[in-house]
Every structure is written in structure tokens, then in C-alpha cells.
Amino acid sequence: MKTRRHAKILELIREYDIDTQEELLRYLREGGFDVTQATVSRDIKELRLVKTLSHTGKYKYSTGMDNSSDISSKFYSLFADSVISVEAAQNLLVVKCMTGMAQAVCASMDAVYWQNFVGTLAGDDTIFIVCRSEAAAQETQEELRKLISR
Q1: What is the rounded CA–CA span in Å between residue 53 and residue 10?
Q2: What is the pLDDT of residue 114?
Q3: Nearest 10 degrees: CA dihedral of 22, 30, 64, 124?
Q4: Which fold has domain 2-62?
Q5: Using one digit for the tens of pLDDT, what is the confidence trace for 77-116?
Q6: CATH fold of 68-148
Q7: In Å, how far are 11, 40, 66, 80, 102 from 35, measured between CA atoms?
């Protein structure tokens, strides 16, 4: 549940300019998460969220990681620790994860630019990735499999 909540928080702060814990709490509750303010406070600390200046001049929560290498390193670590297998099927990739980890892995994957990806979709333990072509799916499968065996 915590992993899903963390993935949802990351999704929310990307989608909305959230500037208070109360606002984040409200969005989480609207999304079906029954959480307290104390839980949200701990989540913010665990995710190491910071307040940055938004394009509107207000402060908002963010990961504070505009540096893509920081995002990449977190993605690689999460991927290696959570993913069980990667299989290509035509222009699709099916990524099997440990139970409850697919949404977090997918959210971190979405934070990294993938030239071959059209889109991603995560469930509880499975991620579907639509690639631009069969060749792109095969190439990406090879790259991702190398990350699992680290």
C-alpha cells in the first residue's frame, strides 16, 4: 500500500502544483487513499520532496531532481530491486515485478526519457510498455534485462 501511495504522490505532484500537506492529503483521499496528515508528512520526508518555485511564482512540492542523472540512478536501483522479468511481444514489453512494485517502477520509468516508448501502463505486479516498433521492443528488452541481472 505504501508503494502505491508513494507512486500516487509522485504522480500528483507532477500533475498539480501542490503547495501544502493538506492539499496533498485532499488529493490522496479523493484518489481513494485513507491517510492521515502524519502519514502524508512521513511520505514527504521518505520521498525527500522539496518545495520549488513553480512557473506561476508559487511554491510547490517536487522531487527536486531536475538533474536527469539523479532520476536515472533511482530508476536503475528501483528497477534492479523490483523487476523479475522482461518479455517482448511484437511492439509490446511485459515487465513482471514483485507484487505491489509495478506502479512505483513505472512511475520512475516515466520520469526517464525513453525514445522507443509510446506509453506505459502499470498494474500491481505488471507493466505494459508500448514501443514504437518491434525492433524497438527487442532492443529495449535487451537493455532492461541487463538491468535485472546487476
Answers
A1: 17
A2: 82
A3: 140
A4: Arc Repressor Mutant, subunit A (1.10.10)
A5: 889 999 999 999 999 999 999 999 999 999 888 887 788 9
A6: Gyrase A; domain 2 (3.30.1360)
A7: 17, 7, 28, 29, 21
